[in-house]
């Protein structure tokens, strides 16, 4: 199997396992999570934003593919001449729209669409942060990013797939191995197959997610594991969490959760 085929197969297998667990796939899978993707566009303590900003030239245009709630699109819009945010989730688009209005950022236009269906003009730079893990046709997705960037493509990709910190809990609650989504080690061979030689920059390691209370942790883990209240699976999760949650100085953590390592994978397209 080629790297592109392997990637597609990993996404299909993970999605099929998720669908088996949750029953019907919601039309907007981000509904419950969108609010977490709101962030102050003027924050100065986000090293990812600074690393991306340092690669932009003054006055450039940016295409943010899978922009979510605008966590990156909005701060970068403060430096770019214009940002086009392509985002298929209505709940994410709502957060992005509200945050742009709240901070009076008026140079971001939103295209509510998946990337492969989006009809947009090329920009100087194409950005795609924490999106590729769920893209089945990664070859077409990357080729379209490349063809829509006049100068530079930047993809932010974790070393391990985003929810890998709860894969162990999945196994204990559901009694089967969680199929992993692809991540950086699978992305680089995909790019090689596409004839792309990227530069990879490792960003600051992000500590495992913490929660303000055991109840907040329980609710988040239940959502990630597709476990609903009042079921046998919830009873099993409660049992597992008795020894899988620990409190350190008032912050609750999942025992054994690993830090996440984000990377910027970038390449010049040479069309400017
Ligand atoms: C983890 S969020 C990341 C959001 C944002 N880029 C960030 O880093 O905060 C992933 C986003 O990718 C979007 N997405 C999923 N499939 C997509 C597709 N085919 N085309 C464009 N965006 C997609 C989701 O709707 C979601 O908003």
Please provide a written account of the structure.
The structure is a single chain. The protein has 272 residues and is an alpha/beta fold. The chain has two domains: 3-208 and 258-268, Rossmann fold; 209-255, no CATH class. The protein is 36% helix and 18% strand. The strands form two sheets. It has a seven-stranded mixed β-sheet with strand order 3-2-1-4-5-9-6. The chain has a two-stranded antiparallel sheet with strand order 7-8. Strand 7 and strand 8 form a beta hairpin. Helix 1 packs across helix 7 and helix 6 crosses helix 9 (232-244). It is globular and about 55 Å long. The two termini are 35 Å apart.
Task: Record the SSE blueprint.
Layout: H1 3-22, H2 47-53, E1 61-65, H3 73-77, E2 82-86, H4 90-102, E3 108-111, E4 123-129, H5 138-147, E5 149-158, H6 167-174, H7 184-193, E6 199-202, H8 214-224, H9 232-244, E7 245-248, E8 251-254, E9 262-268
Parallel strand pairs: 1-2, 1-4, 2-3, 4-5
Antiparallel strand pairs: 5-9, 6-9, 7-8
Bound molecules: S-adenosylmethionine.
Shape: globular
- Which CATH architecture of the largest domain is right? 3-Layer(aba) Sandwich
Q: CATH topology of the largest domain, which one?
A: Rossmann fold
CATH homologous group name of the largest domain: Vaccinia Virus protein VP39
Structural class estimated from helices and strands? alpha/beta
Give me the strand/helix succession.
Answer: HHEHEHEEHEHHEHHEEE
How many domains? The number is 2
Cα Rg: 19 Å
């Amino acid at each position: 199997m080629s790297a592109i085929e392997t990637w597609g197969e990993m996404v299909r297998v993970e999605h099929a396992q998720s669908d088996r667990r949750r029953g019907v796939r919601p039309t907007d899978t981000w509904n419950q999570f969108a609010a977490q993707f709101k962030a102050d566009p003027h924050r100065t303590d986000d090293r990812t934003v600074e690393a991306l900003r340092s690669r932009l030239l003054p006055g450039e245009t940016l295409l943010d593919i899978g922009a979510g709630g605008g966590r990156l699109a909005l701060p970068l819009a403060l430096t770019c001449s214009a940002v086009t945010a392509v985002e298929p989730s209505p709940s994410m688009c709502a957060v992005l729209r509200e945050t742009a209005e709240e901070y009076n950022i008026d140079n971001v236009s939103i295209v509510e669409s998946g990337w492969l269906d989006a009809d947009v003009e090329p920009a100087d730079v194409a950005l795609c942060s924490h999106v590729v893990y769920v893209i089945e046709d990664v070859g077409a997705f990357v080729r379209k990013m490349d063809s829509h960037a006049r100068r530079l493509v930047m993809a932010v990709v974790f070393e391990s797939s985003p929810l890998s910190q709860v894969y162990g809990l999945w196994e204990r609650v559901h009694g089967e191995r969680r199929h992993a989504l692809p991540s950086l080690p699978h992305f680089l061979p995909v790019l090689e197959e596409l004839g792309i030689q990227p530069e990879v920059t490792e960003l600051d390691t992000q500590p495992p997610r913490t929660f303000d209370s055991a109840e907040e942790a329980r609710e988040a883990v239940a959502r990630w594991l597709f476990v609903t209240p009042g079921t046998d699976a919830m009873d099993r999760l409660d049992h597992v969490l008795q020894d899988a949650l620990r409190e350190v100085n008032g912050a609750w953590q999942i025992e054994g959760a690993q830090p996440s390592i984000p990377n910027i994978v970038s390449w010049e397209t040479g069309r400017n």
